[in-house]
Amino acid sequence: MTAELLLAFVLFAFVTSVTPGPNNTMLLASGANFGLRRSLPHMLGISLGLMLLVLAVGLGLGQLFEQVPLFYSLLRYFGAAYLLYLAWKIARAGAPDSTGARSAKPFSFLQAATFQWVNPKAWIMAIGAITTYTPQENFLTNVVLIAALFALVNCPTMSVWTVAGSLLRTWLNDPRILRRFNIGMALLLVTSLYPILADFGGARS
């Protein structure tokens, strides 16, 4: 891989990692509700899950979806349904130490890693990384390099959202404000589904 292509990919990884999406919306909410330290497993799980997804796409899963489009469609709509469920949970969340939310917990490492497989933006990022920035020469080596770089860029970049959420905790001490904040985050998460829902509507028409 040339230095120019490598630099272009790092820029791609940075932009796609730092811009709004399901992961960053949930990290913002997690930072606000649970703080930075308790959100670390969530952040690390996203990075590992995305790295494994990029590896899987590079090693042939993307070709399988091209051959059997139904698999990809089912995955997308299952992911959309799961995101709606997460939005509902975020909207109902209260302060972690409040009487009604003592059982509230941030995403675990495994939950965050698994979530990448039903995250529409993660699939777009993985497919774009492989199809656009991975040279055919020494392909397998380049796939591993791309996946590792994505994880390295992704983790510190998305931490901006978690830190931003944690900085809002003082302001969100008021349960009423926290509830409105969580509802806003839930609505943003639902909004991130617009491309999928629009595509689904177009397919039915």
Automatic annotation (TrEMBL):
<feature type="transmembrane region" description="Helical">
    <location>
        <begin position="74"/>
        <end position="91"/>
    </location>
</feature>
<feature type="transmembrane region" description="Helical">
    <location>
        <begin position="143"/>
        <end position="168"/>
    </location>
</feature>
<protein>
    <submittedName>
        <fullName>LysE family translocator</fullName>
    </submittedName>
</protein>
<dbReference type="InterPro" id="IPR001123">
    <property type="entry name" value="LeuE-type"/>
</dbReference>
<keyword id="KW-1133">Transmembrane helix</keyword>
<feature type="transmembrane region" description="Helical">
    <location>
        <begin position="44"/>
        <end position="62"/>
    </location>
</feature>
<feature type="transmembrane region" description="Helical">
    <location>
        <begin position="180"/>
        <end position="197"/>
    </location>
</feature>
<keyword id="KW-1003">Cell membrane</keyword>
<dbReference type="Pfam" id="PF01810">
    <property type="entry name" value="LysE"/>
</dbReference>
<keyword id="KW-0472">Membrane</keyword>
<keyword id="KW-0812">Transmembrane</keyword>
